[in-house]
Design a protein that fits this description.
Length: 814
């Protein structure tokens, strides 16, 4: 789990690193193994070290840095990893790895330990051993023995790979060894004992993030981390919890090794870069989808970042692992792949001998058993600035990257602009509440929560009402219950539905958006190669930068969804100097291997019941690649020897779309099921009314959301005056530019209230006709009208006065 079902946290924390330890010791054997007492000492230090790091992380979190799940506009409450708990999972898992590194460092590098325990275990005497281990006899040292090592803890390394050896005394202990020892029986026993002494995960001081949580069943608002959405299972759909799976993982081994060999023959699969070159050939201008706009791409990405983020392993290191660096120690989290010598891009870059593409595996996790209400902005209502020094984003010297609820906010300028629009929308609604007489006594927190509730509803509405219809046909959406209602409440919340993100969705199917990416970025009146602005939000600082990004998006068509992907991301992803970029298609493939995704044909069968014969790559044929065009099938045939090896991303994205859809049957099936789970399993779904949510939106409030569109959100938060009615589509005759002022805004319900009764001029002596009006206040479009009648006859006679009578159809009964 991460993010992988069979490789639980327990594995990650104990078995994993210990296995790693054993692998190391056996891989590099013969080596000398430190004694148990030294290992213990290393363990104490490592834990202390990690506690410091953890505190730093917690502090960083408090300061609001790197908290992707703090995405305050989150539809569902964010779902995955990173943040405090992931740090916990992380840190716990790697305490042991760290010990192992340290132990190995001591054992293999230039220290030798001789405890009495060890001495007796050695086949040679300590004396001889020390001497024979010296390569440089001039550097003869005194064997200090382990005791001083253990007492002098400050001298022991603090970070793997960066051993601090400050004192002369330590220097004296250095020994370079040419002869290393084979593990003795006693050494092995030590290791066994070390393993058996490792505390159970649950005994560690650090809390298991999935242990318990107390839910407030009457709470009106989603929690910030998505917990307690499901009252029976508070961790369902929470951030920093494992991906769920539709189908059991398929690793190379039973637990976690990526599948890199053919299922049929056991021969090595092509590398991801080769497959990318074969299958995900460049999408060109000829490949655009004439109907949809760049909003499909950027909103899609925004949504992706709202609901899924896979944690990458960092080990004990505070920075991203550079697995291609030859001097880094072998790390089980590394899963680099080769750039072939005849690579169509890299071979042409002069002096570029790069043959390794960095790839770091995802973090494994256990399963679930174990002020004013405003959001912060910077000048010009832009996102707050991110001044932390651990950014992967760059800007010109006078500019700064942005900070938002999701760390990926700076990926591309259109995305940063969209984040900005949503923060502004939050503040616009918060301002409304702040100014409303009804809300005069609300606290800042209440305004914040209520606003967040509204914004989440808007995002959900736009997702299901405007975005999904461009991907899935009406028929499919009807079938899977994804069509928003015209009126009334959605009453089918089902607490047994698991709202978690499925691995197949985040690791393959929803990455269909990578095919929408276009090679240039339209920023009226300039166009830029996309890669130049990846992780570089400088354009937002240009005059009207945000408006221009917003306009550029509807003035630009998106690429068609198919196997073709632009070279801006398959050749130059995050490239800063020619040739150092990544390949997004290859990453998708490698990530699928990393997460043990079953192959395409398994998914096809699961979704459609169709079976593909292993050697049948024929397009459009029963028993072959039924849903593929001849071109796509041929590409897959080049990349894979057998159909059963085709991976989910290349196989799924290259399917021909279903009628009325932009996706083929396999990705349709995964997306439809995922979005169904996100609706039916969400206790706070905006249209929902369930006894399990005591505070649903009222019917009037819901009425207020229904006319909201992405176009209106843009209009309301920029100075754009005209916009296509549906920004996800290209402007056309059927989707003309309209005035922003003609688009209905969100309607905050205002129920009508009666004025006082007034006498009519036509009253006779004893019967008065009285009128009142529903204008105190008048109801707005989505508010309820006043109940009751607006006129009555009122007797003014004294009792028994004789001439009283009631008239009119309506009276108040007196
Ligand atoms: C310029 C645009 C984009 C860039 C540069 C980009 C880049 C990336 C990168 C580098 C990853 C991580 C790859 C890995 O190591 O596994 C990723 C993951 C992902 N991307 Fe994109 N992407 C873009 C647009 C989109 C769009 C439009 C969508 C969907 C509509 C999308 C959906 C996803 C998903 C679902 C993931 C996995 C998220 C996770 O669980 O961590 N991306 N993208």
């Amino acid at each position: 789990n991460i993010l992988n079902e069979t490789h639980g946290m327990l594995d990650a924390m104990t078995v994993g690193p210990v296995r790693h330890f054993l692998q190391k010791t056996t891989t590099f054997e013969p080596i000398e193994v430190p004694s148990l007492s030294i290992i213990r000492q290393l363990k104490i230090e490592s834990e202390n070290d990690h506690k410091h790091k953890l505190n730093d992380n917690l502090e960083a979190k408090e300061r609001g840095i790197d908290t992707p799940d703090g995405n305050l506009t989150s539809m569902f409450g964010p779902h995955l990893i990173t943040n405090m708990e992931s740090v916990l999972i992380h840190e716990q898992g790697y305490i042991y790895e760290d010990i192992v590194y340290r132990a190995l460092e001591y054992a293999t590098e230039d220290f030798s330990f001789t405890t009495s325990h060890q001495t007796s275990a050695f086949t040679t005497s300590t004396e001889m051993d020390s001497t024979s281990m010296l390569t440089d006899t001039t550097e003869t040292t005194t064997d200090m023995g382990p005791t001083s090592m253990l007492t002098d803890t400050t001298e022991i390394s603090t970070t793997p790979g960066t051993t601090v050896r400050q004192t002369m005394q330590l220097k004296k202990r250095r020994k370079k060894r040419s002869i290393k020892k084979i593990l003795s029986e006693t050494d092995r026993k030590q290791i066994d004992q070390f393993i058996s002494n490792l505390p159970d995960a649950s005994l560690l001081d650090l809390p298991c993030p999935f242990n318990t949580t107390v839910c407030n069943e009457t709470a009106k608002y989603r929690t910030i981390d998505g917990s307690c959405n499901n009252l029976e299972h508070p961790y369902w759909g929470k951030s920093f919890t494992p991906f769920d799976r539709f189908i059991k993982a398929e690793y190379q081994d039973a637990s976690h090794s990526p599948r890199i060999f053919s299922k049929l023959t056991g021969t090595a699969l092509e590398g991801p870069r080769e497959i990318s070159n074969f299958v995900h050939t460049t999408s060109t201008l000829a490949d655009i989808d004439p109907a949809i706009s760049f909003y499909m791409m950027t909103f899609g990405q925004f949504l992706d970042h709202d609901i899924t983020k896979t944690a990458l392993a960092k080990g004990a290191y505070p920075f991203n692992l550079d697995c291609c660096n030859p001097i880094r120690p072998n790390n089980s989290d590394c899963f680099t792949f080769t750039i072939p010598g005849d690579d169509p891009y890299h071979r042409n870059i002069l002096g570029n001998n790069r043959r390794c593409m960095n790839f770091v595996r995802s973090v494994a996790a256990c399963d679930l058993g174990c002020n004013l209400g405003m959001m912060l902005v910077s000048t010009d209502d832009k996102l707050p600035l991110d001044n932390s020094d651990t950014l992967s984003c760059t800007t010109d010297a006078d500019k700064t990257c942005f900070r938002a609820g999701d760390v990926r906010v700076n990926t591309q300028p259109a995305l940063s602009s969209l984040h900005t629009i949503w923060v502004r929308e939050h503040n616009r609604i918060a301002q409304h509440f702040k100014n409303s007489p009804e809300c005069y006594n609300w606290t800042g927190q209440q305004i914040f929560e209520e606003t967040r509730r509204y914004v989440a509803a808007e995002i959900q509405h736009i997702t299901y009402n405007e975005f999904l219809p461009k991907l899935l046909s009406e028929e499919i959406r009807e079938q899977f219950g994804l069509v928003p209602l015209c009126d009334g409440h959605f009453t089918d919340y089902d607490p047994s539905v698991r709202p978690m993100i499925r691995n197949s969705f985040s690791t393959a199917a929803y990455r269909m958006g990578h095919s929408l990416i276009k090679d240039n970025f339209t920023f009226p009146s300039n166009d830029f190669d996309l890669h130049v602005h990846l992780n570089k939000p400088d354009l937002l600082y240009e005059p009207s930068g945000i408006e221009r990004c917003m306009r550029g998006m509807y003035e630009t068509k998106a690429q068609s969804i198919d196997e073709k992907m632009t070279r801006e991301v398959t050749w130059k992803l995050f490239e800063t100097i020619a040739g150092n970029g990544g390949d997004l298609a290859a990453f998708n493939i490698q990530r699928g291997r990393d997460h043990g995704l079953p192959s395409y044909t398994t998914w096809l069968h699961w979704c459609t019941n169709k079976t593909v014969q292993n050697e049948n790559f024929n397009a459009g044929e029963e028993g072959g690649l039924f849903y593929h065009s001849a071109t796509a099938a041929a590409k897959l045939g080049r990349a894979y020897a057998y159909t059963c090896d085709i991976e989910l991303f290349p196989g799924g994205i290259s399917e021909e779309p279903l009628p009325g859809s932009r996706l083929g049957p396999t990705f349709t099936c995964i997306l439809a099921l995922q979005f169904r789970a996100l609706k039916y399993g969400d206790r706070f779904f905006y249209e929902g009314n369930t006894p399990l949510n005591p505070h649903p939106f009222t019917p009037q409030e819901l009425e207020g959301f229904r006319p909201i569109t992405m176009a209106k959100i843009i209009c309301a938060n920029t100075n754009i005056e005209q916009i296509p009615r549906d920004v996800f589509l290209e402007p056309s005759e059927s989707n003309p530019l309209v005035n922003c002022s003609d688009l209905p805004d969100i309607c905050f319900p205002k129920n009508g209230g009666w004025s006082d009764w007034k006498d009519s001029c036509c009253s006779n002596c004893c019967t008065r006709q009285q009128y009142r009006s529903c204008d105190n206040p008048p109801p707005n479009e989505c508010g309820k009208p006043c109940e009751g009648y607006d006129f009555r006859y009122k007797s003014t006679c004294h009792y028994g006065g004789g001439c009283c009578h009631y008239g009119g159809d309506h009276h108040d009964g007196h």
